[in-house]
Design goal:
The chain is an alpha+beta fold. It has 3 domains: about 110 residues, Nucleotidyltransferase, domain 5 (2-Layer Sandwich), CATH 3.30.420; about 80 residues, no CATH class; about 120 residues, no CATH class. About 55% of the residues lie in helices and about 10% in strands. α5 packs antiparallel against α7, α8 crosses α13 and α9 packs antiparallel against α11. It is globular, with a radius of gyration of 25 Å. The model has no long low-confidence stretch (mean pLDDT about 85).
Length: about 350
Amino acid sequence: MNYAVDYAQKQKSIGIVWNGDRKPEILITLAGGEFSKDKLDLLEKLGPDDKLFLEFAGGSDKFARAASRKDSQVLRVPTFVFKNFRQENKLGNEIHLALMKMAKKSPESFYPMQKVDEDITHLRFLSRAYWIIQKRIRIPTQLRLSGVYRDLFLLENDIEGVDLESRLKEEFADLPLFQAALNEEKRFEEGIKDCLKQIPVYKEVFVPIKGCGHLIAGRIIGEIVDIKRFPSKHHLKSYARLHHNLDGTVPRREKGKVSSGNDYLRDGVYQFCDQTNRRPDSFWGQKLLKRKQYELDKIFPDMSKVTVKTKGVQKFYSDGVNEIAFGHIHNKAKRYVGQKFLECIYSRWNEFERLQEL
């Protein structure tokens, strides 16, 4: 049997079933929820002789992986290819019907889900779990409790000759909540390492890049999933919300408007930029330094007249007429380097895919 499903994570999903041209199509409705009973029932029905046609979008990745593990053939089409097909054939918003028509008319447009796609899907959620545990649980817990523990220690103990920071580390070592978060971090990190061993693009494209370690690479690969999803480098930058509007301005969140893009990917790129800042001798570190100088030269043509002023904890460049924050220059340079890094990834990943097809 052939199944075409307009998959939605939280809303109901609509699908259609057909068997060649011999039987009429059967509409199916799958209740909302990531894995509702209807969706689980469909997964149970799938067998080795069945084909599942889906749009290649982030929301359906888990469903596609689950179906693939049932030995069904999962075929996915990139969103931009599917959009062009719908426009050319003047198809409406009934995605399941459009998928069925495309499967019959243009089956070569669909890519079969392979083992590496399953590994990348697994990598995506391992990486998300790692960063959520670290950024939202362990680090906030450590920062909030360290102040409380420091105050209690000062009130309850004689501090003469005591290394306060060492004592705080000892306190955290005995704290079950902190240790549980740390152990989960380590477990997810090991899972990320194991997944990356099965993903060839990591070794060929990301390992040679200084400053792009396994955690950052895992985050970026997991969110991109497959470079074939993006028709151009500009679409990839837009997906990471590192593009510019037509008028040259930087996109900003607006009240009442849905913000598209992938924040996990954007954060991963900025984490790489932070690593380049710590490695000024690397290729990308040099690019960051040059861009900072370029941004300064645009505002201060004569740098000999520029002084650095401090206001509170912030530093400012000033020539008596113009004044700009050091952080603003740094962030503009980071954004530029992030854009160029994604362009580089897009080019290298596509080249790697072409060589794999030879």
